[in-house]
Specification:
It is a single-pass type I membrane protein. InterPro entries: Cadherin, Cadherin-like_dom, Cadherin-like_sf, Cadherin_CS, Cadherin_Y-type_LIR, Catenin-bd_sf. Residues 4-84, 85-193, 194-308, 309-413, 413-531 form the Cadherin domain. It is found in: Cell membrane. With 718 residues, the chain is mainly beta. Among the domains are: 13-73, Immunoglobulin-like, CATH 2.60.40.60; 83-184, Sandwich (Immunoglobulin-like), CATH 2.60.40; 197-300, Immunoglobulin-like (Sandwich), CATH 2.60.40; 307-404, Cadherins (Immunoglobulin-like, Sandwich), CATH 2.60.40.60; 412-524, Cadherins (Immunoglobulin-like, Sandwich), CATH 2.60.40. Strands 30, 32, 35, 36 and 37 form a 5-stranded mixed beta sheet that branches. The longest helix has 46 residues, at 538-583.
Length: 718
């Protein structure tokens, strides 16, 4: 309740309320000043409210006192139970743990005010899970309550935990959660065989490495604690077998390590030990973590193939051995109780096998063809042995035959050498080291010897020095060599081997004389370099040759241009005269003008061919063919020319100017009429042609023609 000292109780004072929750959570009586809560309060939602109150005059509405602020606190009551926010819980603890082993800590939260009363004071207890586990009532830590809890007996436990407020007193609120606890495995159990003796039956034909049986030891532990290792205890028959562990089933797989033979031994007995791989030292006192069992194996008799006396046969034969010679034998036996005879034959795979034969009964191997070591040095084939009583049972063995060498090839120089000697070489200088090779298969310790041939030993040029280690050196015997005198030397070298019979060969080595510097470095071995100065390099030589070639080209071009210019001057003069004659509708250049018209066609009309291209005009790309009637022999030339004239008149492709092809005679047919002196009133003797010589070189030929005094035939047509 709010009250002002100015309030006389006559209703002149009015109380107002403002602030947090005013009008929604709290209300005030304007006359008495009483404050009331108009809805339920929750401390966990809002623990306090800040409000402001004021007294005002009812008539004037003016404050009678300054505004005052006050706080309303919400007092807590126990209306919230404890809650496990992280539940339900999952935990684990190793089996066989001691009492009090830590498992898990749980925690419950109470929303009530922990500073007021016991509303938020929580106490923990176990409702389900005793007597195996216990819990601390204040901290909520869960621990084991019984010793030696065995996972193999019970693995899963469900514990119900309660948290109660008000300190666990009567009337307090409570909450619960579940804790699922699993016992984890430890290696507390050794492996045990379910029986002490295992019996196995194995056929003697079982292959080496194959599995012949399985045994199993039981371990109640789990995971890696149940992993078992099996071992064969050394003893009777244990060396023929091996045992491994199947990782999926933890079984011991017995495998055959060596072949079995019923005829040799019919039964084997040995012991197998099973032990854990991962031991726990805390349980050593329980006893040894291993167990043993006896394994008895009975070998079953089987019909087996023949067995060769050796796993492989190696034989030797000389390459010149005659056909049919026995070089060795193979032997196979039937080891079964009822021994059977054996037959032999070669396993034919290729043509190489045909070089040998085998006796089917005795197993002896003989040559079938002549052998050549240089062609094939070794033969590798298989021989099959089968039982007569059961041919399907066969065995195979490899036979290697080495062909021994007979010394039939002489030694030769191993590689072709390019030997050179300096012009300034000194006597005794080694210019080449040579080695030899022999196509024969050289036995251990074979040696090659080197020497000069008899005809070369007397020459004072080179010698051969045998180093006695299958190599030799070519040495000089002269003080200097000259390429100008002799560029190449041919040295015959005789090489002998040490086999019997001794084989030898003469090998000719080519030695080239080269120009070298003072240190012996080769500068040039070319023939043309002999005639060059000593200090002239290859680049300078190329430059000189290039300059000579360019000068020759210039000279050739100059001579060609001079000849062409002289020829053009002569042709230009002739063409000018001809062009002038044609231009002025005159006849051609006379008998000397052989380019304008072929006079042979006039003298022998038979040489005319159909569609012959004219020489005085440029032919068109397309010409209409003209059919000419054949000309009979002894036809008058005038008739022939008239015929040609008519053809040109009707030919649309003929040129529109006169030429020798169109007008063969001067006179009537020419617009300029005749320029000849045939019909002239004056004679040639009345004319003086000396002035033609003053007209220059273009009229030189014309001046020469009229300047000469010759007899003239007026009937000759020019």
């Amino acid at each position: 309740q709010l009250h002002s000292d100015l309030d006389k109780g006559v209703g002149t004072v009015k109380y107002t309320l403002s602030g947090d929750g005013a009008g929604t959570v709290f209300t005030i009586d304007e006359t008495t000043g009483d404050i009331h809560a108009i809805r339920s309060l929750d401390r966990e939602e809002k623990p306090f409210y800040t409000l402001r109150a004021q007294a005002v005059d009812v008539d004037t509405k003016k404050p009678l006192e300054p505004e005052s602020e006050f706080i309303i606190k919400v007092q807590d009551i126990n209306d919230n139970e404890p809650k496990f926010l992280d539940g339900p819980y999952v935990a684990s603890v190793p089996e066989m743990s001691p009492v009090g082993a830590y498992v898990l800590q749980v925690k419950a939260t109470d929303a009530d005010d922990p500073t007021y009363g016991n509303s938020a004071r929580v106490v923990y207890s176990i409702l389900q899970g005793q007597p195996y586990f216990s819990i601390d009532p204040k901290t909520g830590v869960i621990r084991t309550a019984l010793p030696n809890m065995d996972r193999e007996v019970k693995e899963q436990y469900q514990v119900l935990i309660q948290a109660k407020d008000m300190g666990g007193q009567l009337g307090g609120l409570a909450g619960t959660t579940t804790v699922n606890i699993t016992l984890t495995d430890v290696n507390d159990n050794p492996p045990r065989f379910p029986k002490s003796i295992f019996h196995l039956k194995v056929p003697e034909s079982s292959h080496v490495g194959s599995a012949i049986g399985r045994i199993r030891a039981v371990d109640p532990d789990f995971g890696k604690n149940a992993e078992i290792e099996y071992n064969i205890v050394p003893g009777d028959g244990g060396n023929l077998f091996d045992i491994t562990t199947d990782e999926n089933t933890q079984e011991g797989v017995i495998k055959l390590k060596k072949p079995l033979d019923f005829e040799t031994k019919k039964a084997y007995t040995f012991k197998v030990e099973a032990s854990n791989l991962h031991l726990d030292h805390r349980f050593h006192s329980v006893g040894p973590f291993k167990d043993t069992a006896t394994v008895k194996i009975n070998v079953l008799d089987m019909d087996e193939p023949p067995v060769f006396s050796k796993p492989m046969y190696t034989m030797e034969v000389y390459e010149d051995t005659p056909v049919g010679t026995i070089i060795g034998a193979v032997t196979a036996q039937d080891l079964d109780a009822g021994s059977s005879s054996v037959r032999y034959f070669i396993d034919w795979k290729n043509d190489v096998d045909s070089y040998f034969t085998i006796d089917a009964t005795e197993g002896t191997i003989a040559t079938n063809e002549l052998l050549d070591r240089e062609s094939t040095a070794q033969y590798n084939f298989s021989i099959i042995a089968s039982k007569v009583s059961n041919p399907l049972l066969t065995s195979k063995v490899n036979v290697i035959i080495n062909v021994l060498d007979v010394n039939e090839f002489p030694p030769e120089i191993s590689v072709p050498y390019e030997t050179s000697v300096c012009e300034n070489a000194k006597p005794g200088q080694v210019i080449q080291t040579v080695t030899a090779a022999d196509k024969d298969l050289s036995p251990a310790g074979q040696r090659f010897s080197f020497r000069l041939s008899a005809e070369a030993s007397n020459k004072p040029n080179f010698t051969v020095h045998d180093y006695r280690n299958n190599t030799a050196g070519i040495e000089t015997r002269r003080n200097g060599y000259s390429r100008r005198q002799q560029e190449l030397y041919f040295l015959p070298v005789v090489i002998e081997d040490s086999s019997y019979p001794v084989q030898s060969s003469t090998n000719t080595m080519t030695i080239r004389v080269c120009r070298c510097d003072s240190d012996g470095t080769i500068l040039s071995c070319n023939v043309e370099a002999i005639f060059l100065p000593v200090g002239l390099s290859t680049g300078a030589l190329i430059a000189i040759l290039l300059c000579i070639v360019i000068l020759l080209v210039i000279v050739v071009l100059y001579v060609a241009l001079r000849r062409q210019k002289k020829k053009d001057t002569l042709m230009t003069s002739k063409e000018d005269i001809r062009d002038n004659v044609i231009h002025y509708d005159d006849e051609g250049g006379g008998e000397e003008d052989t380019q304008a018209f072929d006079i042979g066609a006039l003298r022998n009309p038979k040489v005319i061919e159909d569609n012959k291209i004219r020489r005085d005009i440029k032919p068109d790309s397309f010409r209409f063919p003209r059919q000419r009637p054949p000309v009979e022999d002894n036809t008058d030339i005038r008739d022939f020319i008239n015929q040609r004239l008519q053809e040109n008149d009707v030919d649309p492709t003929a040129p529109p100017y006169d030429s020798l092809a169109t007008y063969a005679y001067e006179g009537n047919g020419s617009v300029a009429e005749s320029l000849s002196s045939i019909d002239s009133l004056t004679t040639e003797a009345d004319q003086d042609y000396d002035y033609l010589s003053d007209w220059g070189p273009r009229f030189k030929i014309l001046a020469d023609m009229f300047g000469e005094e010759e007899s003239y035939n007026p009937d000759k047509v020019t």
